[in-house]
Structures are given as structure tokens and as C-alpha cells.
Amino acid sequence: MKITIKKIAEEAGVSVTTVSNVINKKAHRVSQDKIDMIEEIIKKYNYSPNMNARALVKSSSRLIGLLYFSDQKNLDFADPFVNEILQGIQRVAKEHNFFTLVHSVTKTEDIEEVQKNWRFDGFIAVGFSQELFEEVHKIIQVPIIFIDTHLKDEVYSHIEDYPNSYFINTNDQDASYKATTYLLKKGLTKIGFYSYEFDKNKTSVIQQRYVGYHNALKDFHIKPDTDLEYTEEQQSEILNHLDDFQGILVTADYLAIKFIHKLKQEKSFYERKLSIISFDDIRYAALNDPPLTTIRLDQTKKGEIAMKTLVNIVDEHMKENQITLLNGTLIVRKTTF
Predict the structure, then answer these.
(1) CATH number of the domain enclosing 31
(2) pLDDT in single tens digits along all 337 residues of the chain
(3) What InterPro entries does UniProt report for this protein, alphabetically (predicted)?
(4) pTM to 2 decimals?
(5) 19 and 128 housed in the same domain
(6) Which of 20, 131, 177, 278 has the most Cβ atoms closer than 10 angstroms to its Cβ?
(7) Extended strands (E) in the chain
(8) Residue 32 resides in a domain
């Protein structure tokens, strides 16, 4: 027997509207006993709403596009940063009956292609550049939440020109200043900077952390030394110059954990007593050996905030703040001496 929302309503002795409100998590005026009874009937019949039919009726697809900017063709799901943001998004999306489609983006054409095949109620974009943001602004007409997307100041100062764009960022410059200052106050003066490849002249998460690192050194009257700055591609070089360092600021926990693993392989970690501090506080940071000193940025929370913002805009038609700036928290563990 095909179960319908009408049959569930008849069995529960309520209206079809009440059942619909319970399914859509909008049963604010329905008693908890009624909600429990309706959910029990839904569970008994293993009822699943026809999302395509609902989309046609409501002119809503219930589909959110999650766009990760990546220099690589395939997204690295092994990176905990990627997983933790996705976890936060999925948690809220499921609660409000949205679906997510994850897509890695290297160029504007990738977004145009995905829009040809699917109809989206909104997008969440992670780590976009200024250039990609400007292109996306032209081709996406639905609300889009940008996570960890640092742009030119003129964009934020004229945010009203981008009514469908919302930003959830960490104050990365301040977080980096805080991390570097922690090492400096421990008496370290030769502090290196270790990151993924980035352009120092283009605003980005890593570039903002680089600026914060330099600002802290200058405030402690230490001249920044480019000979202490390396990217992951230069790992073999940094391993040959470890005597130049007392501490290293690493721009991501995942990168720091890989670096510590390499130092252990080279039998250099414990022997050098090199202080290492990084960013994110991914779940593996506390499990690392030794546990990693880091700046907690709570990427899962960012994902939750981004998805909740979309829910409020799409379902509740609420006016949301276009710029949300989050602060990092220093978590001291065992990799700083």
C-alpha cells in the first residue's frame, strides 16, 4: 500500500497541514504528544516525502550547492578541514530537510556547468579568491554564503552592492598575530612561517595569516626574515635549515601534523626542541603525538552558521548580517616549549 501524507493525517486524526508542518520542522503550534505520534506513524510506514513534488509546489529544490575552491581537480576529502565544514553544513541541512551537492571548483566554468544540471536554492562557497568571487557574483542569482573568503576592503565597505552575498570568516590576521605573539613571549626570536603555496599580494586566508605574523614580529622589534619562510613544496629545504629556527608558525593543523611526522622520520623533532603552533584545532590535533598547540577556529561551527544563514534566508525570508567575523582561541598543548 502506498502511504501518503493524507493517510498519515487520517491515522493521526490531524490535518494534512499539521503533518506537513511536522515533516518540515515547523510544528511550533503542535503539541509534543501530537508530534511524537505523527513521527511514530511516519517511522512505522518508513514514509519519505517526495522532494521533487514538493519542489514543484513550492518552487524550491531544497538543494544547496557546496563549492570548494581547489587548485587540484579532485577535492582532498582526507583533509579534516574539508570534512569538518561539511559536517557542520550537513548537520543543519538534514535538520531542515535540505540536500547538499559537493563540487570542487577551479574556475568559473565549473560553476556554470553544475548550474546547467541542477536547480539550487542557494550556495555555500569555501576559500574563493577575489577574481573568482567577482565572476561568481555575475552568474549566481540565489543567496551564496562565502566561508574563509577574504576580499578587497572595497567589497566589504560597499557590501550593499552584493545583496545575495554573505561572508563568514575568521579574523585570520588577528589569529596569526595571537599565535606569533605567544611564541615571542616565550622568548623565541627566530620564528619561521610554513604554509601551502600562496600569493603574498592577493588577499586570502594564508595571506592574512602571513600579514599577522609579520605584524607581530614588527611589534616586538624583530625584522621579518624571508629566509625563514617556506611553503610545503620547499619541505626538503626547510629540513636542511632547521638550525635557523626556534619556532615555526604553520598555517594549518593538517600541514603541521604532516610536518611533525616528517621531522620524526628524520629523527629531528625531539632532538631540536622546535616549537610548532598552527591553526584550526581539527579533531586530530589533540590526538597527535605530541598534542598540537593551535588556534581553535571551529570549522564545524562555521559550517553550521553558514547553513543556518541559508535556512533563515530561503525558508524564513529573514534579513541576515552579511558579514560575520569569528575570533580564534589559543589552545596550548605540547608542541611549544
Answers:
(1) 1.10.260.40
(2) 668 888 899 999 999 888 888 887 777 788 999 999 999 998 888 887 665 555 544 567 899 999 998 776 666 667 788 889 999 999 999 999 999 999 888 888 888 888 888 889 999 999 999 999 999 988 999 999 999 999 999 999 999 999 999 999 999 999 999 999 999 999 999 999 999 999 999 999 999 999 999 999 999 999 999 999 999 999 999 999 999 999 999 999 999 999 999 999 998 888 888 999 999 999 999 999 999 999 999 999 999 999 999 999 998 889 999 999 999 999 999 999 9
(3) HTH_LacI (IPR000843), LacI/GalR-like_sensor (IPR046335), Lambda_DNA-bd_dom_sf (IPR010982), Peripla_BP_I (IPR028082)
(4) 0.81
(5) no
(6) 278
(7) 63-69, 99-105, 122-126, 144-147, 165-170, 191-195, 229-231, 247-250, 275-280, 293-296, 323-326, 329-331
(8) yes
In degrees, rounded to 5, the angle at the alpha carbon of residue 143 between the alpha carbons of residues 142 and 148 is 135
Same structural domain, 176 and 254: yes
Number of domains within the chain: 3
* Strand-strand pairing, 63-69 and 99-105: parallel
> Residue 273, by phi and psi: left (phi above 0), alpha (psi -120 to 50) or beta?
left
Domain that holds residue 215: 172-297
Distance between CA 230 and CA 207 in Å, rounded? 13
Q: Are residues 99 and 247 in the same domain?
A: no
56 found inside a domain: no
Residue 163 maps to a domain: yes
Do 132 and 142 have their domain in common?
A: yes
Domain co-membership, 177 together with 291: yes
CA proximity to 330, closest of 288, 284, 279: 279
| CA gap 318, 297 in Å, rounded | 26
Query: Is 54 contained in some domain?
Result: no
